[in-house]
Amino acid sequence: VLKRRRDGNICRSCTRRDEAAVGLKGNCRVGHSVLLPLYARVVKDAGLAAPGQKSGPRVLCAMAHFRLQNVEDFYEIGEVLGSGHFGQVRELTEQSSGTRWAGKFLKLQRSASSRLGVERRSVEREVEILQALPHAHIMALHDVFDSRAEIVLVVELISGGELFDFIAEKENLMENEAIGFLKQILSGVAFMHSKQIAHFDLKPENIMLSDKSAELPEIKIIDFGLAQRFTPGEEYRSLCGTPQYIAPEVVNYEPLTVASDMWSMGVITYILLSGMSPFQGDSDEETLRNIVDMKYEFEDQYFSATSDMAKDFIQKLLIKDQSKRMTAEECLMHPWIKPLTHRQAASRSRSSINMKNFKKFNARRKWRMSYNMVWVCNRLCRLQLLCKQAQEDEELRSCESDQEDIGIKPASLIRRRLSSNS
C-alpha cells in the first residue's frame, strides 16, 4: 500500500498540516493550478477525499512535510543558539502549545554554480532521512518550512551540550560509566543501519545530550547533512567526513557501506578512553596516510588503566576490511558492553578513562573548532565581496553596452535615411 512518490506535486492552496491533495497533470484534484514539489508517502486514502471527489490517493507524511507558509505564523523566533556555514540555529516556541524547539534556518543556493548556500536536494535528502529515523537517541524532526530563499527545519531542542564537554567537566569517569553513553550511541546507530542509512559524520561534535542535569543524561545523534540511504544494487562513493574519523574506504574512494560508521565509533571510543586520537597527524594529509596505513597503537602511558576487553572492542572496529568490522548490533553484544560473567563486569568497573589527557584533548578540539569557524567566516566574507564585485562589474558592462547601442542608433538611422533618399 505504501509507495514512495519522488516526483509528486503538492498544491499550495490545498496544503494543510497533515494532508494535501496530490497534483495531477498541472492541476490538483480540487482544481487549483499552483503546484510545488513535495517528498512524502502516498498512502491509500481511508475514506477521506477532496471536495467533490471520490476516495483516492492522498499525500500523508509520517512526521513532517515541506510547509509552504511562514515559520513566523506558527512559531515565535527566539535567540540564536548557533551558526554554521550556511545558516543559523535559533530557539523557537510553538504558538499553539508553548513547546520549545530549535529551528535550523538554511540558506539555499541561488544557482547550481553558486558557492554560497546549501543545495535544495541535500536538504530534501536530510529531511527524508530524519523522517525515517524516529528513535530516542536520534534528533527528532518536527516540522519543515519551505520558501524560495531558505528552508527552516524545526527539530528537537537539545540543550545539554556535547557529550565530550560534559565528560571533560568531571573529575573522573569509570569505564562502566563511559559504556553507558556508548550503549546509547550504538542503539541509535543500530536503528539507523537497520534502515540502510549511514551517518558518515559521526564525531564528538555530533553527539549531544538532551539535558545534562538529568541523573542519566540522554544521548542524541545530530547533523544528518552527510547521511545517505543505501539502495540495493547501487554503489555509493564519497569523499566526505572529518579527517580524524573517516574510514580507509572513504580515503581510497571505494564503495561505502554502513560499516564506515563503525570505524568512526572505534575512533570515538579510542579517544574517549585515552584522550588521544589514534590517527591524528601534524596535517590532514598525514592523518589520512595514517588511516590508510593503519598506524595506531595502545600506548601504555595513555591506556595503562584501560581494560583488555575495551582494547579488544576497539580492535574489532578499527579493521581495514569493512566486512570484518563489528556491526552496531554485534557491538551491543560484545562482552565489554554486555558482560557475560561477574568477572568481566568487575573488570570494567575497576578500569577508568584517562581524564587528564581527555581534558587536554577536548581543550585542543574546542580551540581547533573556534579557529576553523573564524577561518570559514573570513572566507565567506571574501566570497561575498567577490560576488558583489562580480555583480557590480556585470552591471557596469551592461550599462556600457546600453550606451554603445544608444551611440550607434543615430548613425545607423542617418545611413538608412540617406539610402532611402537615394
UniProtKB/TrEMBL annotation:
Entry GO terms, CC: cytoplasm; nucleus
Protein name as catalogued: Protein kinase domain-containing protein
Family matches, as SMART domains: S_TKc
GO molecular function list: ATP binding; protein serine/threonine kinase activity
PANTHER family: PROTEIN KINASE DOMAIN-CONTAINING PROTEIN, SERINE/THREONINE-PROTEIN KINASE 17
Keyword Nucleotide-binding assigned: yes
PROSITE patterns hit by this protein: PROTEIN_KINASE_ATP (PS00107), PROTEIN_KINASE_DOM (PS50011), PROTEIN_KINASE_ST (PS00108)
Domain of life assignment: Eukaryota
Protein kinase domain ranges (all copies): 75-337
The organism of origin for this protein: Electrophorus voltai
Biological process terms in GO annotation: intracellular signal transduction; positive regulation of apoptotic process
SUPFAM superfamilies membership: Protein kinase-like (PK-like) (SSF56112)
Family named by the database record: Belongs to the protein kinase superfamily.
Record keywords: ATP-binding, Kinase, Nucleotide-binding, Serine/threonine-protein kinase, Transferase
Binding site for ATP: K104
InterPro entries for the chain: Kinase-like_dom_sf, Prot_kinase_dom, Protein_kinase_ATP_BS, Ser/Thr_kinase_AS
